[in-house]
Amino acid sequence: MFVSASLLMSCGNGGLGCGGYYDAFGDFIPGVCPSGGPLTGFQLDSINVCAGPPASPTPTPSGTVSPTPTPTMCPQATSTSVAAGNIIQFHADGLFSKKTQTMVMDITNNNQTNWTTSNSVSLLSPPQGDGGSYTGAQAGCACIAASAGGISSLQVGITVYPTAGATPSCPPCPTPLATATPTVKASAALSTVSTNSSPAGVMQWSFDAGAALSSSVAGAADATAYFVTSDSTLQAVSSTGAAKWHTLAGGGSVLVSPDASLIYYLGPDGKLKALSPDGKYQWGSDVALSQGPLAVSGGTVFAVSSDGQLVAITSPGMVLWQVPIGGAASQAVALDGGGVVAAISRSAVVAVSADGAVKWSFTPNGGFGGALAVQGGVVYAGSESGTVYALDASSGAESWHYDSGAPIVAGPVVDGEGTIFFASDSLYALGSDGAVRWSNPLLTSGSVVLAGTPSGVFVSTSGGSSTEYSDAGVEQWTTRDFATAASATFASPGVLYVANSSGRVFAVK
């Protein structure tokens, strides 16, 4: 895998200066290079996490010619310890290759590098821009790692010991399964090899969208990411983090058809458009829309018309039906069999069949709030009062509800195991019977972003911490490299897309 353009950028003048750089769309931006990097075409082969902060660059006297150094990575750090309240520093070296050439570069603070910890209660991960600087919080054990371009370092075990009392006994961090050692080129010193069994939370790429996103990321089966930014642009980014194409948009959402053959969005004229994956126009609808696309089922797209009705549109832009549901839908999810469930903020949840007939309507206590989710013939809906409801998708009958007693700030979302997650005063995990499986009160106040994963949940808080928990509530990894997340989506083929408030998009596995 090749890391994206921002990591592979060449800054002219022998690396001593830069007249500018090329942005994600290939436009030249004059000024200072955003970060140094090897020449385009170099592949990241391996990462070592090494003890201590990055070494300061040694200036070369004017007029001298330095010999080409033999690429040598810093030695991989071994298990160590830190007192609670203290900071321990690491840095990361990346080994890059291109045919017979190799080079080593410090990637500690490159915007493609993700630093994680397995126990944020004991060891805080570094804030964005301060890569490798971990803070001991309270006695315990943690494993850390750095990743970029789909490659992860070996994990480093860290024991956090108290200022008084017994030091915990920590087991070794998991070791990746052995894989074939790659051929080392041009006498490079290779301390660690990449594997196919890297820890979770491995950064695949990050991409500067140029503006904050106005939509969540829609992922396709080929790992292409689609999203709309606040400057009215629909962008497509490849599986390696490279810009594929962009076009003007008029809405704040984008969807991919189930077979990944079409990309749906609102054009500048406020009407639904369908593009092929290479960005070519396929068809458009003539009906004026105020919101959408909200959901897609087969070849049918659901949106909201300019007069607030729920609309179903199919190829080649034909309106199947328009149905008033008591207000303009803010969210919708597709149902098996071609129907849709739509929710009106602070009002009702309404199910409409594939032929446009309203099947049922349910008004949660305090009106709808939070999110909608559907799995296994059950609709999960939040409410303004802090209650999550499980409704039969066919009849709308209530199966159960759980009242958290506090306003819902995110969710509900459902993971691949059928566990329902939502955030209010805590992060809650409910079983399919509505019983609390576990809760975590460590959420900070403010906004919370949730995304269900195959066997757990991704959680990001306004404090800038992002964590993936297992279905059983065990912390898998935590990072602060994403800063404040604005949205998160888990999509095929197993990629978690996170967009932060400043317009950077991350792809993680």
Could you characterize what this model shows?
This protein has a domain at 42-55 and 70-199: Immunoglobulin-like (Sandwich). The chain is 0% helix and 45% strand. With 509 residues, the chain is mainly β. The relative contact order is 0.10. The radius of gyration is 25 Å and the shape is globular.
Brief characterization of the structure:
With 509 residues, the protein is mostly beta strands. Strands 3, 5, 6, 8 and 9 form a five-stranded antiparallel β-sheet that branches. Strands 4, 7, 10, 11 and 12 form a five-stranded mixed β-sheet that branches. A four-stranded antiparallel β-sheet has the order 13-44-43-42, with no helix packed on it. The model is unreliable at 1-39 and 178-197 (pLDDT under 50).
Topology (SSEs and partners):
Elements: E1 20-22, E2 28-30, E3 43-51, E4 80-83, E5 87-98, E6 101-106, E7 114-117, E8 123-124, E9 133-136, E10 140-148, E11 151-152, E12 156-161, E13 203-208, E14 218-219, E15 225-229, E16 233-237, E17 243-248, E18 254-256, E19 263-266, E20 272-275, E21 281-284, E22 289-297, E23 300-305, E24 310-314, E25 318-323, E26 331-334, E27 340-343, E28 349-352, E29 358-362, E30 368-375, E31 378-383, E32 387-392, E33 398-403, E34 410-414, E35 420-423, E36 427-430, E37 436-440, E38 448-453, E39 456-461, E40 466-470, E41 475-479, E42 485-491, E43 495-500, E44 504-508
